Amino acid sequence: MAQPHFDHLETRSAAAREAALMESLARQVAHAKANAPYFGRVLADVDPQAVRSREALAALPVTRKADLHDLQAEAPPFGGLVAGDWGSLARVFASPGPIHDPEGRGPDWWRSARALYAAGFRRGELVHNAFSYHFTPAGVIFETGCHALGCTVFPAGVGQTEAQARAIAGLRPSGYTGTPSFLKTILDKARELDLDTSSLTKALVTGEALPPDLRRLLEDEHGVRTLQCYGTADLGIVAYESEAREGLIVDEGAIVEIVRPGTGDPVPEGEVGEVVVTILNPDYPLIRFATGDLSAVLSGPSPCGRTNMRIKGWMGRADQTTKVKGMFVHPRQVAEVARRHPEVQKARLVVEREGPATDVMTLHCEVADPAATGLAAAIAESVQAVCKLKGQVRLVAAGDLPNDGKVIEDARPPATPA
């Protein structure tokens, strides 16, 4: 009988996992500081042996995905974030930006095998891999995970819908990896051509949202059990769905934090914030890497028996920078205003338009006492000092602001074409 879990790590106690992760974290910080020039600089004043808790990790600086292009332009090809030379790498990719993504040597370097196993992929099966093999790492991420499981891979890549449908009909794979929308496109084309794709019974998808109606269509109309995972070209697989379908389970090789956008400050469980990931990878030791994606932590372990942290999955983008009266306003500026006033529990800057061309900023602040005398005026002074723009302040009760991860809401109507 097949084992329900990939390995024993998935079902260990929370205490055992945390102890092992924090021990590995201290080693990773020391390794990154000593061998990756970028981290040597940003962690110059950090004692790696003191980084053995979530609190200590949260005190380290955040490296943002949005900054990779500039970092790599200043210190090509990897911005000093790789802990090795060309000989230590198996491949290099160029994602849009361009951003150079390294791949180290070794089996399942991107950690996709665990996600594939949770989706039902097993040794001896054929997998139709419809992720791109050109320039970007997606195709390789899933191919190497399939190989680690003992699966055979058909490297379909992207495009050529009819040829893909005919390949499935001819080779009879049992599994699919790729985007969910392209799977539907292939299956629709196969139906149009009267091709038999019934061998395809499972899929692991990512790269875009998986709406409930699309999942139902793939499963009910085409018989393809469809689960999803979350990852990036920098980090590999970060979290994956199991048969329980109650959130995404964090991979055993990742440490995930959810922070307030524009900051490195962790938010309470359940609150939407930006996904920040530390990967225990010696070749590309990304520490507190801010993905720019929004999610939230779910309470408790998964009903499937896996005990690691769960997140809700992709909930939008965290980069909410906007332009007001010709000047950019960033989430980090909103966070700085809130920091200056300990009474502020949460803040949200709303930008609206009055009349045909007047932009108005209002900072909505959750506070314990919305009737506090003088607080709104003091916060307004901080808004002008930090953002260099005047803004109104509205004090609201704790819990009044939406839990959607937004720090800046641009509520202005879209421009209409002339």
Notes on the protein architecture:
The protein has helices at residues 14-35, 37-42, 54-58, 68-74, 113-118, 138-149, 161-171, 180-192, 212-221, 331-339, 375-387; strands spanning 63-64, 89-95, 99-104, 126-129, 152-155, 175-178, 202-205, 225-232, 236-241, 248-250, 254-259, 273-279, 289-295, 297-298, 310-311, 322-324, 327-329, 346-354, 358-367, 392-397, 408-410. By secondary structure, the chain is of the alpha/beta class. The strands form five sheets. The protein has a nine-stranded mixed beta sheet, with helices on both faces. Strands 1-13-12-11 form a four-stranded mixed beta sheet, with no helix packed on it. A four-stranded mixed beta sheet has the order 20-19-18-21. A hairpin with a 6-residue loop joins strand 9 (236-241) and strand 10 (248-250). Helix 7 (161-171) packs across helix 8 (180-192), helix 8 packs parallel to helix 9 (212-221) and helix 10 (331-339) packs across helix 11 (375-387). The longest helix has 22 residues, at 14-35.
- The helix content, as a percent range, equals 25-40%
* Gyration radius over CA: 23 Å
How large a portion of the residues is in β-strands, by DSSP E? 25-35%
Span from first to last CA? 66 Å
Envelope shape:
globular
**Stretches with pLDDT under 50, minimum 5 residues:** none
Number of helices: 11
Give the beta-strand count. 21
Strand order of the largest sheet: 5-4-6-7-8-9-10-15-14
What's the mean pLDDT score?
Answer: 94
Category by helix and strand content: alpha/beta
Q: What does the main sheet amount to?
A: 9 strands, mixed
